[in-house]
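Listing 4. Sequential folding, example run.
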Amino acid sequence: MAWTQTLPKTTEAEGTSLVSFNGKLYMGTAYNAHLYEWNGVAASWSQVATGAAFSYIKSLIVYNGKLYAAISGSGQGVLSEWTGAAWSIVASTLLGENILNKLLVYNNKIYVCTDAGYLFEWDGVSAWVNVSSPLNAKSVRGITEYNGKIYGGAEGALLYEWDGVSAWVGVAGQYSNHDNVWDVREYGGELYGVTNQSGITGHLIKWDDVSAWVFVADATMQQWRLQIVDTDLYLSGTTGMVRKWDGATLTNVTNFQAEINNIYALEQYIGGDYRLYAVGVSGTEVTGLFWTGVQGAVPAPESPQVYREKKFSEGDILLTM
């Protein structure tokens, strides 16, 4: 299947993250921490926020009805909230950590994994709180929730489980001779990861729920990201290809395209057209916005609800229509 270019290229160096928010699609970039917005109709991205020079956004997340970014570089590793017009820092750099990799909402709090192997928790007001020891210079590349706990895929192709208090606990040793597990995601009741190492083909792997990674499929390229649409798991990486895992078979969704040789972000446009979109980099330019050809199920419109049965107690107010 061929790519469909939806929006033209920008002059940014890298498109590093995508997120759906309030019916629009947002992209974070490298080197200037720019935030771009697309309303699903316009013919190009609209830049709506900028950060410090040489800073970048590796992760965007929606939390309590607001948009947040992990902004790294230029000696900072901050959590910023988008006000609708600009970035506002709500957690400053902690322990000198200036590379924040991936945000996660867990137990109604924001967490982030870092390049030094820390796990930070936002206090909800103005600061990061360190909730783990560093992993001996092992970067935690991606985190996810699985069976009620936080897991991190790490440098060394390792897997760690957070003890919920103050430490990472190793639960899977190095996978084969691979160097990195770049992203992790729960899918179909199992914990999956993707590997990325220069010169070695990337693999889709899963945890055996005890102590080891297990081979699932050869993705024939280095892998960056995992995303779920409906009942399928999608992988993106180098060579500008997206692949689909349906629980049994790994198949190509898109063919190679030179204009998008590294796909750093995949996102389903929730609240828009529910398609799966990708951004990445080719040379020194962000590759615009590309539709992968994947169309997610669009929810049926809700019927107007005139009456709702409810048990009322003293102090309740009843409104009728």
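-- end of first protein; second protein begins --
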Amino acid sequence: MKTEPDKAETDKTDSDITVPDERVTREPMTPIRRKIAAHLLKARQNTAMLTTFNEIDMSRAMALRQAYKEPFKEKHQVSLGYMSFFIKACIEALKQCPQVNAFVDGNDIVYHHYYHVGWPSDLAKAWSCRSSAMRTGWISPALKRPLSDL
């Protein structure tokens, strides 16, 4: 009878586990692109990073939320918030600009053809938790392949 998992099983992280439909494309960088990437990395490491805020028109999302707020709460026992609208907007933006959903690996750019979305969530506000440790903490839930059928 096996009581302990194999070392190979315990060494796996979430990033080691892939789902067959999580496709990636590797594209070799040109010499000039490698030079630009190196300069951008150096600039990022040596300068302060800033956040930009943009105003958007949320009137359609607010109207949609208002129309479905009560039926949603009755069906799911949770309030309908704005996070789903933000996630949908982020995924649509990633589809239009796939370079944002890519990373540099050596001399290649690796493009992801899927979307995993995570966000911080306050446990005390999100759920009425019984554990005092959970009432004071934050978690970062992640959706793997959200809206894949949309």
